Amino acid sequence: MDTWRLDAAGPEAIRADVLDTFPYEYQGKEILLELETQEFTSVCPWSGLPDFGRLRIVYVPDGLCVELKSFKYYLFSYRNVGIYYEHLTQRILTDLVAAVRPLYMRIEGDFNERGGIATRARAEYRRPGWSGPGALTI
């Protein structure tokens, strides 16, 4: 059934090792950071055709922030990776939490229609014991 499938790289091609961080100098003072791109691309793992979407990352750093150029290279590593939306959303969350160890992080993916169906995927991490953002709206 999948003999016509185009070749695409697997999840092992994702480059979490390129993620770099810098110290958040106001540790103890919460700030809500939002990163957004409308240029995310990956590949449908079934057809090999390109997928496009918008990603939004919202997080409250503890001691580290993600460096944006490295984050862009990280996202670029998905370009030829065949991965389901549900999996890539969890993978991005896992990789970013490992890199910056935030108090809170949410990943939102709004993906273009495939076969007439648009998909939204959201995943969230909250550090155990962290009670919330105080006055910040998440």
Describe the structure.
The chain has helices spanning 68-76, 85-100; strands at 21-23, 33-43, 50-60, 64-66, 104-114, 117-126. The strands form two sheets. Strands 2-3-5-6 form a four-stranded antiparallel β-sheet, covered by helices on one side. It has a single domain, classed as 2-Layer Sandwich (GTP Cyclohydrolase I, domain 2). It is an alpha+beta fold and 138 residues long. It has two helices and six strands, in the order E-E-E-E-H-H-E-E. The protein is 18% helix and 36% strand.
Q: What's the tally of helices?
A: 2
| Annotation, overall tally of beta strands | 6
- Spatial gap, N to C terminus: 44 Å
Biggest sheet statistics: 4 strands, antiparallel
Q: CATH homologous superfamily?
A: GTP cyclohydrolase I, C-terminal domain/NADPH-dependent 7-cyano-7-deazaguanine reductase, N-terminal domain
Which class do the helix and strand fractions yield?
A: alpha+beta
The CATH topology annotation reads as GTP Cyclohydrolase I, domain 2
The CATH C-level name is Alpha Beta
Helix content: 10-25%
> If you average the pLDDT, what whole number results?
89
Tell me the count of domains. Answer: 1
Strand content: 35-45%
Order of helices and strands: EEEEHHEE
CATH architecture: 2-Layer Sandwich
Q: Give the C-alpha Rg.
A: 16 Å
Strand arrangement within the widest β-sheet reads 2-3-5-6
- Principal-axis shape equals globular
Show unreliable segments. 1-5
Tell me the layout of helices and strands.
Layout: E1 21-23, E2 33-43, E3 50-60, E4 64-66, H1 68-76, H2 85-100, E5 104-114, E6 117-126
Antiparallel strand pairs: 1-4, 2-3, 3-5, 5-6
